[in-house]
Amino acid sequence: MASVRDLLAKSTTLAGDESLREAQLLLCAALDKPRSYLIAWPEADVPAAAEQRYRDWLQRRIQGVPIAYLLGSRDFWSLSLQVNEATLIPRADTELLIETALSLDLSGDSAALDLGTGSGAIALALAKERPFWRITAVEQSAEALDVARANGERLGLQRIEWLQGDWFSELSGRRFSLIVSNPPYIADEDSHLSRGDLRFEPRSALASGVDGLDDIREIIDSAPMHLESGGHLFLEHGFAQGAAVRELLSAAGFSNVGSSRDLAGHERVTGGAWLGELAE
Question: Which of 50, 138, 190, 247 has the smallest number of CB atoms closer than 10 Å to its CB?
Fold first, then answer.
């Protein structure tokens, strides 16, 4: 029977600086123990079933499967979210979108819309921080929407309206004070799609046309028909797309257009206010 120390030594088969941390995460999950257990009891024997789970996960991780998919969860904002191969893996970059939305001075019962909700990360984070907002979340994939709905139930955030549809297709005649989205924004032929975790994530949630902006264009073009006067639209995008998204928003008639930078200094979220006449 192998010990904790013996099995963690296998982390050398993982590539990258995160090898030990990832091995610890996998072993903690296999044992259903906290990380402190590994540190306090390095000589502890690992039961055969837990050892086999760990070895299976380690092999799949060596093959490149994202650790979030192996563990079935990913922390985002202040939430632990279930994820699987039907959903995009929530990333820390997207927390900037949450911060930007929460910076608005909206009334307590404002209507907010999350387009392309995936695992429900954005909608659930907003619901946690603004429990009286009326939040609607739209997702094209039925499998991903099931994950999002289950996350809401498990977290006790069940006031969200979950809809299956393509962007605004299920929202005829409805308007919102806030629309947010982390849409696909990678160019179809971008080499990053064949590297790292992106190889395993749903391509429909990642790629969007020759320049990566097809879905962003569609959202911007349709948003005025679904925004209240003074309503805001905020979009996450690639680190080099800020100028292009600002141009698209300005051309569509949005005001107060601007971008926010992530911790690395990259423009990551761009948005504006709809101050024009209500579009039909």
Answer: 247
Express each pLDDT in 28-70 by its tens digit. 999 999 989 998 988 999 999 999 999 999 899 988 899 999 9
Phi, psi of 248 (to 5 degrees): -65, -40
Identify the CATH number of the domain in which residue 183 sits: 3.40.50.150
Q: What are phi and psi of 181, to 5 degrees?
A: -160, 140
Secondary structure element (H or E) that encloses residue 155, with its range: helix 142-155
Q: Rounded to the nearest 5°, which phi and psi values hold at 242?
A: -55, -50
Q: How many CB atoms lie within 10 A of CB 191?
A: 7
Question: β-pairing, 161-164 with 134-139?
Answer: parallel
Spell out the residues 6+ positions from residue 186 whose beta carbon is closer than 8 angstroms to its own: 192, 193, 198, 206, 207, 208, 212, 238
Name the β-bridge partners of 269. Answer: 236, 260
Q: What is the CATH number of the domain that holds 17?
A: 1.10.8
What's the pLDDT score for residue 278?
Answer: 67
Give Cβ neighbours of residue 24 (< 8 Å, ≥ 6 apart): 8, 11, 35, 38
Are 140 and 33 found together in one domain? no
Number of domains the chain contains: 2
Amino acid occupying residue 195: R
What is d(CA 205, CA 141) in angstroms, rounded to the nearest whole number?
A: 10
258 to each of 189, 213, 269, how far by Cα in Å? 28, 17, 8
> Which residues form the domain of 126?
77-274
Cα–Cα distance for residue pair 227/230, rounded to 1 Å: 8
Positive or negative torsion for Cα 113, 85, 27, 16 = negative
- pLDDT, tens only, 184-209: 999 998 888 888 889 989 998 988 89
Contact between 147 and 83 (Cβ < 8 Å): yes
> Of 15, 35, 63, which one is at a domain's C-terminal end?
63
Longest Cα–Cα distance of the chain, Å, equals 71
